[in-house]
Amino acid sequence: MIMNGLPLHLIDEILFRMDPKSMAMMRCTNKSIKSYLTDPRFGPQYPPWVRPNLINLSSSDRSLVFCQPLVSSCDSVSLEYRAEFINEQCYIFGSCSGLLLLYIGHLFVANPLTKKFRILNHSGSKLLPHIVGGVKKDDPYDPNGPLVRTERAMCVGFVVDPYRTTKRFKIVCILEMETKYRFEISDGDSWRLSKTTLTTSSKSGLKTRMKPVYVDGNLHWLRNDWSLIAFNPETEQARLIPCSFHPTPDTKVLFAAKDKINPLTLISGTIKEISIYTLLGNHKWTLERQIKNVSMEKTWLKCWYVVAYDGKCLVVLENNMVLHVYDLEADSWGVLGTTECWSEDFYKFTPSYFSIEEDEQTKVNVASDDQQISYLTTIMEVIDTTSQRDFTKRTSPRVFTGTYRSGHFRCFQFNM
Which residues form the F-box domain (predicted)? Predict the structure, then answer.
């Protein structure tokens, strides 16, 4: 094979421009490439998608952007994190296949690794303008009055199909109306209501701050009665999955999924013990494993949360400052990092070279004074851990030029 005689740096460049499916095929068809990819030096030296990251974007009057490599206690990589303040309220709505869906004055789909992004027109959505612009007392989708925006972000699902040549993404918003649910969908160009309507026999709202989980082609939302709503963005079929669960009042809960294996997972934790449940075909949450919770000093303990799980690592946030990681294979706890987090909303992000495609008819430029674009660039730089630069002391992002026409979209690439 021609690649066998190439210099290592060229092999790196080729491999890191492949999507995961193509890389998996290379591992199966070429012994030297398989050996190269399984070399322990490969992961620590080259972080793209081999090394996932945890990102947190906390907002009040300004936003703190935080990125931390998600590594186990056995990984020999630097545990330094990157963080930076920007003077704008920002919200992350989803992370999938190396792409982010986030709001900073505009709704963006962005790839922090390639520095490409699109601006999406969210005005056609029935839900998103209420989340990013606040809600009123008479809002039909929030009969109990206004909620914190991040609490309603769980109504937004973001999925990317990595196996299609077009690398399509979809945004799915679930609309709650008593016992009835509707779904609105966007592929980046327009918004429409699905013909699908799901009616349940009992009223139960979605659990706040509990992000939907994408497994087996379906988005899953967790309800307060512990049942699930599943929606397939391709077929637009929806169904209710009746489940039961009985946690104690002091239990911390995380809804997640394992990487690759992908069964739906429910993490139930107390200050003493954390239990991992998986959902079986009989719609029962079955206990898979119990572990002793990390030792936290009760004298100083104000709050703690289970913030991430992928089947290999489980992450606990203590006092919004210390991240503890449990390595399921080594059966041991370690400190992942320390930072100042205002929110327990963490997203797992795995870098990729997936493209962000657009219609040539809808391209526009962005205004040179559009501060939100420069904030987006800062966020992408912080999250892009493939760059070795330190952003922890930066105070302002870069600004670049262009023109903007409202209501259209544009894809950009920046030379870093």
Answer: 6-46
Q: How confident is the model at residue 414 (pLDDT cuts 50, 70, 90)?
A: very low
In this prediction, what percent of the chain has a pLDDT beyond 90? Answer: 30
Query: Region 43-67: what's the mean pLDDT?
Result: 69
Q: What is the largest CA-CA distance in the chain?
A: 67
Q: Are residues 75 and 32 in the same domain?
A: no
Query: What single letter denotes the amino acid at residue 358?
Result: E
**pTM confidence score:** 0.78
Q: What percent of the chain has pLDDT over 70?
A: 68
**Same domain assignment for residues 10 and 139:** no
Range of the domain at 23: 2-39
Distance CA 85, CA 81 (A): 14
| Six-digit token string for 356 | 């962000």
- The DSSP 8-state label assigned to residue 295 in this structure reads P
The encoded tokens of residue 2 equal 């021609």
- 201 and 175 in a common domain: yes
| Residue 59 sits in the same domain as residue 156 | yes
* 230 and 191 inside one domain: yes
Is residue 319 domain-resident?
Answer: yes
Q: What is the pLDDT of residues 203-222, one digit of tens each?
A: 898 998 899 999 888 999 99
* Amino acid 157: pLDDT: 96
Contact of 397 with 374, CB cutoff 8 Å: yes
Give me the residue label for tokens 């068809």.
29
Whether 31 and 138 share a structural domain: no
The phi and psi torsions of 199 (rounded to 5 degrees) equal -115, 130
- pLDDT computed for residue 41 by the predictor: 43
Is 134 found in the same domain as 30?
no
The CATH code of the domain that includes 60 is 2.120.10
